[in-house]
Design brief:
The protein is of the alpha/beta class and 259 residues long. Helix content is 35%, strand content 27%. A hairpin with a 4-residue loop joins strand 8 and strand 9. The chain is globular and about 45 Å long.
């Protein structure tokens, strides 16, 4: 059995670490590189950086920022926000990012997933999905809808259909981010995570809602996730990455004790 991955998410706005609840009321809470260094020393498996305004503002990610991260952090990290072309993805890989996360641009032009996967490999191509509960209908049979542009634009696309399509198009990993659970610290959206995880053959990362160690345990055991993203739970010092891993290890979840 592969080890489950603990991944810290750092939302970046204008070079600062930011946090929101359900994608609104965003506030600045510190320096993202400083926090990333702290989590690296504390044994986090991976990091993901999202430039949360890049897609909405239709601008490129700050390559200099990515290079600074690569100079400080010596574990895999991925970058998302504003990736619209193979050239964008290649620049990020050359700057030191292990993976690139596509979201809004891929929904607008699904061929982008295949193009990036062919250029840098499926293992480095991550499809991030921002998902919100919706009324079940013939268009959205799963009851979960894809939302783009940092949670501001509903698409009418069924999340489960999009997850399967993303895999077929070449994505090597899916991040399933529940807008409804984001920042609430009330637990992951387990039904959504399990629905996706049981329907695809690539790793699925649960995102949105972690507030205590048990939530991680449930994401892995009930949500069938391969990895889990944490943010507020570590950003505000409620738990360290080490404490979360020790809890999981003590409760029978296989994790890398890499500290």
């Amino acid at each position: 059995m592969l080890s489950k991955r603990l991944i810290a998410c750092l939302d970046v706005r204008d070079g600062k670490l930011a946090k929101s609840v359900r994608f609104v009321d965003t506030i600045d809470i510190g320096d993202p590189i400083e926090k990333a260094s702290q989590y690296y020393r504390d044994g986090i498996d991976e990091l993901v950086f999202y430039d949360i305004n890049a897609s909405r503002e239709e601008r490129d990610i700050d390559i200099e920022f990515v290079e600074k991260v690569a100079a400080e952090i010596f574990i895999p990290f991925s970058v998302g926000g504003g990736i619209r072309s193979v050239e964008d993805a290649t620049r990020l890989r050359l700057a030191g990012a292990e993976k690139v996360n596509v979201n809004t641009a891929a929904v607008k032009r699904k061929e982008l997933i295949t193009e990036i996967a062919r250029a840098i490999g499926s293992q480095s191509t991550v499809l991030s999905m921002d998902v919100r509960r919706a009324d079940t209908s013939s268009q959205i049979p799963s009851g979960y809808e894809i939302v783009i542009n940092d949670g501001t634009t509903p698409t009418g696309i069924d999340a489960l259909k999009w997850a399967r399509m993303g895999e077929e198009l070449g994505a090597g990993e899916l991040v399933v981010n529940s807008i409804d659970a984001d920042g609430t610290k009330e637990g992951y959206e387990l039904e959504l995570t399990r629905l996706v995880a049981d329907s695809v053959g690539i790793p699925v990362i649960a995102s949105g809602g972690a507030g205590e160690p048990e939530h991680l345990y449930r994401a892995f055991t009930e949500g069938h996730a391969d990895g889990a993203i944490v943010a507020s739970i570590v950003h505000y010092g409620e738990y360290t990455c080490r404490q979360l891993k020790e809890y999981l290890d003590n409760h029978g979840v296989k994790v890398r004790m890499n500290y």
